[in-house]
Amino acid sequence: MSQPDITVLYFAAASTATGLTEQLVTLPASQYPLSSLSGFLVSLHPDVGLDKILQSSQWSVNAEMVDNVEEVVLKGGEEVAVICPVSGG
């Protein structure tokens, strides 16, 4: 059985930290909680400050904002966006 892939879209600070705007990520399990994705992405991009960025970011899955990450389970094929807070100036 093949591992499920998702597309992660990085915006603003997350894009700057990873050096990417988009990344195909293979999930470690076929039923993967969105609440665990932060830690997984940080493990793929260690030492760039992504953990702090993700703590204050919101998620969208298939272009829909996620209110409660605990309720979302990724199964593969989703497009997941990291929406960073925008600082005004």
UniProtKB/TrEMBL annotation:
Task: PTM 1-thioglycine: list the residues.
Answer: G89
> Pfam families per the record?
ThiS (PF02597)
Any one Gene Ontology molecular-function term assigned to this protein's record: nucleotide binding
> Cellular location of this protein?
Cytoplasm
The pathway is:
Cofactor biosynthesis; molybdopterin biosynthesis
GO biological process terms on file: Mo-molybdopterin cofactor biosynthetic process
Annotated transmembrane regions:
none
PANTHER family per the UniProt record, alphabetical: MOLYBDOPTERIN SYNTHASE SULFUR CARRIER SUBUNIT (PTHR33359:SF1)
Which family does the record claim for this protein? Answer: Belongs to the MoaD family. MOCS2A subfamily.
Q: Would you tell me the protein name for this molecule?
A: Molybdopterin synthase sulfur carrier subunit
- The species this protein belongs to is Suillus luteus UH-Slu-Lm8-n1
